[in-house]
């Protein structure tokens, strides 16, 4: 089927085939590492006019990139006034619509530290809605990891967690190799607890913690 109806069918197929298991601050050691090992230096550079770019690849309904934003705001409440951007991408347009809405019920928000939730989210009926400062840090775009990547700038951190596990190893290998050129020399790549770097990227990346990688040349 072609035209609008064909597009709708393809979107429905994508929704059926993609897995959208996510939660705020999932795998908390990644956010602790980001907060204590990566962000202090980057935020100081941002205060001096530098830029920060972080990519959440396979962002689902936004809980991961919003968790990154909350981690940044916990260290730098005025972060939205600086050149700090989180790119959040996913193939599922339904999930992206939920992410842009930024509304989460009480049960979903229970994994978020109370102080961060109360400061940066707004109470809305039976749930919470992302506040302006959080929203200003995150940009949501549709992106198929198997297609073209339009990004030209490199990232200081890339989160691609519990996404590649659903691909066969040959595809995983290709995707890991595509991440490497988009990493700044001191960048970190965060992957899921069941995932391991494979293929040519193994020679280019070294571990910097549990399921955390950095460029080997920067080790």
Q: What does the model show?
A:
This protein is α/β, with parallel strands linked by helices. It has a single domain (about 25-219), classed as 3-Layer(aba) Sandwich (Rossmann fold), CATH 3.40.50. About 40% of the residues lie in helices and about 25% in strands. It has helices at about 5-15, 30-45, 65-75, 95-100, 105-110, 115-120, 130-135, 170-180, and strands at about 50-55, 85-90, 105, 120-125, 125-130, 140, 155-160, 185-190, 205, 210-215. The strands form 2 sheets. A 7-stranded mixed sheet has the order 6-2-1-7-8-10-9. Strands 3-5-4 form a 3-stranded antiparallel sheet. α3 links the parallel β1 and β2 (about 85-90). α2 packs across α3 (about 65-75). It is globular and about 50 Å long. Mean pLDDT is about 90; it is low at about 10-20.
Secondary structure layout:
Elements: H1 3-17, H2 28-47, E1 52-57, H3 63-75, E2 84-90, H4 93-101, E3 103-105, H5 106-109, H6 114-120, E4 121-124, E5 127-130, H7 132-137, E6 138-142, E7 155-160, H8 169-179, E8 183-191, E9 205-207, E10 212-215
Parallel strand pairs: 1-2, 1-7, 2-6, 7-8
Antiparallel strand pairs: 3-5, 4-5, 8-10, 9-10
Q: What are the salient characteristics of this protein?
A:
10 strands, Rossmann fold, 219 residues, seven-stranded mixed sheet, globular, alpha/beta, three-stranded antiparallel sheet, 8 helices
């Amino acid at each position: 089927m072609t035209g609008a109806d064909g597009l709708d069918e393809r979107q429905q197929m994508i929704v059926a085939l993609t897995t959208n298991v996510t939660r705020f601050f999932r795998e908390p050691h990644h956010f602790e590492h980001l907060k204590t090992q990566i962000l202090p230096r980057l935020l100081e550079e941002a205060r001096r006019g530098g830029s920060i770019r972080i990519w959440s690849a396979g962002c689902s309904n936004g809980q991961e990139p919003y968790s990154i934003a909350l981690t940044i705001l916990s260290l730098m409440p005025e972060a939205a006034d600086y050149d700090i951007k989180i790119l959040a991408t996913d193939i599922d347009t339904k999930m992206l619509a939920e992410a842009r809405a930024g509304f989460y019920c009480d049960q979903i928000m229970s994994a978020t530290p109370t102080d961060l939730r109360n400061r940066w989210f707004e109470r809305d009926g039976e749930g919470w809605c992302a506040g302006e400062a959080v929203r200003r840090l995150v940009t949501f775009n549709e992106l198929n990891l198997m297609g073209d990547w339009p990004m030209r700038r490199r990232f200081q951190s890339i989160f691609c967690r519990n996404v590649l596990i659903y691909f066969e190893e040959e595809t995983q290998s290709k995707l890991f190799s595509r991440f490497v050129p988009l990493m700044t020399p001191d960048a970190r790549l965060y992957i899921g607890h069941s995932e391991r770097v494979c293929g040519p990227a193994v020679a280019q990346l070294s571990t910097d913690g549990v399921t955390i990688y950095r460029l080997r040349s920067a080790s």
